[in-house]
Amino acid sequence: CFLFSAPVVISSLTVLTIRYKRRWDIIYICPFSGAVKGKVLITNYRLYFKSSDADVTVTLDVPLGAISRVEKMGGASSRGENSYGLDITCKDMRNLRFALKQEGHSRRDIFDLLFRHAFPLSHGLLLFAYVTQEKYEENGWNVYKPIEEFRRQGLPNNKWRITFINKNYELCDTYPTVLAVPFKSKEEDLRRVAAFRSRGRIPVLSWIHRENQAVIVRCSQPLVGMSGKRNKDDERYLDLIREANDTIKLTIYDARPNVNAVANKATGGGYEGDEYQNAELMFLDIQNIHVMRESLKKLKDIVYPNVEESHWLSSLESTHWLEHVKLVLSGAIQVADKVSSGNSVVVHCSDGWDRTAQLTSLAMLMLDSHYRTLRGFQVLIEKEWISFGHKFASRIGHGDKNHADQDRSPIFVQFIDCVWQMTKQFPTAFEFNERLLLTILDHLYSCRFGTFLYNCESARDQHEVRSKTVSLWSLVNSKMDIYLNPFYTPESGRVLYPVASMRHLELWVTYYIRWNPRIRQQQQSPVEQRYKELLALRDEYLKKLEELQLSDSSPSSRLANSPTPNTSSSTSSPSQQYTHLHTPF
């Protein structure tokens, strides 16, 4: 078998990590090929294994950031074959097991090195993104500029204004510094509303429909509590949102199941009741982070290392993963449909940084074709996920050894899965391809870039992420052609409504089961393959043309090609004429 991570171009990265290089002879207990002898190389960024057996080729390339847990296997009294070594649990749907000889203390050395560099924050070390010296032509941190994105949407206008009340993160420490709020609201109104919303996450505009002026507004739950507290300022503020485009009834989408929202009253939270006049409340029944974490664990159990094909459908159903994907997509469709028909909506869950981000970003992807472009999708992630405080550090656990932390959850992975489902149903609507989605998820864990580090903008400012680390978009935009969808057809006004039924949803095999060489992954379509071959042929011709032009411009070439007296153009050689030809590419 041949196991590999997504292709990664490394130049300065290799030079940098070589300082921490250590190599050992080891046995990899491959779940597909059995025990395989080889050498393992460990740097401060990756674990790299290559088999030494002539008849079996196995390669492993694992960024240390993708490691969730490292455990010692067996003890001094272990006598069974390959019973002494290391168990490594990864965040990217695979586990690794290595066997070592007991003499020489090599296990202790490998364990210490892995534990130290896989969990740098637990050892007082810097995350790898602060150590790498990669350079790119484009600065990916400039991809998203809030004011420019609001202007693209047609803001500010006579109904919505831009406020900098949060410029020092005093109103809400998990919100961005630039916010769009109703034009009629005053700064003091915003402060009073913040006091009644969980974590101070007030309702703010995410997106506005250019034609009907309906908006998607996001926030956290109101602090109603068991006593049913009211806040006139919050009620009036939501009415200002409704009035901005004369929506008859403002629809409030609460992502939670009804029973969960009621239970949250016991901890001071809750939901909008009948006191919010001219508003309707709808629950979307999306489960919390703990349910999603357990669901993905069950999925991992059935896809790695072995897939039981005889019970596959029932096993997949028992994980409930696709059922959760369906509910998230279904909720986003309801949001998009309501806005498309001219009605403004408010979206929230408990704190407004998990399910809320899923719903707003997916609805915006359905409504706005700009977010379906390669750069637009980067803006969408930066805006709705990163700037609005999805807790990446807590949900992923970057550099943290506490693998059992109850804050860990695959919320962002689930969002990318939903995007993939949409690309399958609308293969010509997205400028980017599956490779982009895989690259994003690989670097969600890798810690090679600063893009997904920390929980919110204020924390990123404190740790100087933009000045001391490289953005993932610097990598992506340096070689955009490999992330482009050859079938993309721009359609600016088209709203996408995916079918969110179990019959139309698929398990994303090329992500969840990519480590299993025995699963026949979906092959590239012949048309796409031929398209790529033609692109490669074009590049080859262009390279030859460039070489010919360079040779033609050299002094010796000019001398050789200069016409001699009494020589007419009709007698010029074929090679001389060739330099003036233009390729149709």
UniProtKB/TrEMBL annotation:
Where does the Myotubularin phosphatase domain start and stop, copy by copy? 140-512
Superkingdom of the organism of origin: Eukaryota
Output the Gene Ontology terms for molecular function. Answer: phosphatidylinositol-3,5-bisphosphate 3-phosphatase activity; phosphatidylinositol-3-phosphate phosphatase activity; phosphoprotein phosphatase activity
* UniProt topology in membrane: Peripheral membrane protein
Catalysed transformations (reactions): a 1,2-diacyl-sn-glycero-3-phospho-(1D-myo-inositol-3-phosphate) + H2O = a 1,2-diacyl-sn-glycero-3-phospho-(1D-myo-inositol) + phosphate; 1,2-dioctanoyl-sn-glycero-3-phospho-(1D-myo-inositol-3,5-bisphosphate) + H2O = 1,2-dioctanoyl-sn-glycero-3-phospho-(1D-myo-inositol-5-phosphate) + phosphate; 1,2-dihexadecanoyl-sn-glycero-3-phospho-(1D-myo-inositol-3,5-bisphosphate) + H2O = 1,2-dihexadecanoyl-sn-glycero-3-phospho-(1D-myo-inositol-5-phosphate) + phosphate; 1,2-dioctanoyl-sn-glycero-3-phospho-(1-D-myo-inositol-3-phosphate) + H2O = 1,2-dioctanoyl-sn-glycero-3-phospho-(1D-myo-inositol) + phosphate
The terms describing its cellular component in GO are: filopodium; late endosome; plasma membrane; ruffle; sarcomere
Q: Which UniProt keywords apply?
A: Cell membrane, Cell projection, Cytoplasm, Endosome, Hydrolase, Lipid metabolism, Membrane, Protein phosphatase
4Fe-4S recorded as keyword: no
Query: Can you tell me which residues the record assigns to a coiled coil?
Result: none
Compositionally biased intervals (Polar residues):
550-560, 576-585
Q: Which residues form the active site?
A: 349
Q: Where is this region: Disordered?
A: 549-585
Look at the named UniProt entry and state the broad enzyme category this protein falls under. hydrolase
Q: What is its EC number?
A: 3.1.3.95
What InterPro entries is this protein classified in?
A: GRAM, Myotubularin, Myotubularin-like_Pase_dom, PH-like_dom_sf, Prot-tyrosine_phosphatase-like, Tyr_Pase_AS, Tyr_Pase_cat, Tyr_Pase_dom
Compositional bias of type Low complexity: which residue ranges?
Answer: 561-575
Q: Where in the cell is it found?
A: Cell membrane; Cell projection, Filopodium; Cell projection, Ruffle; Cytoplasm, Myofibril, Sarcomere
Q: Which residues bind substrate?
A: 288-289, 349-355
- What Pfam families does its record include? GRAM (PF02893), Myotub-related (PF06602)
Record family assignment? Belongs to the protein-tyrosine phosphatase family. Non-receptor class myotubularin subfamily.
Which PANTHER family did the record assign? MYOTUBULARIN, MYOTUBULARIN-RELATED
| Name this polypeptide is given | Myotubularin
Organism this protein belongs to? Lates calcarifer (Barramundi)
Q: Which gene encodes it?
A: MTM1
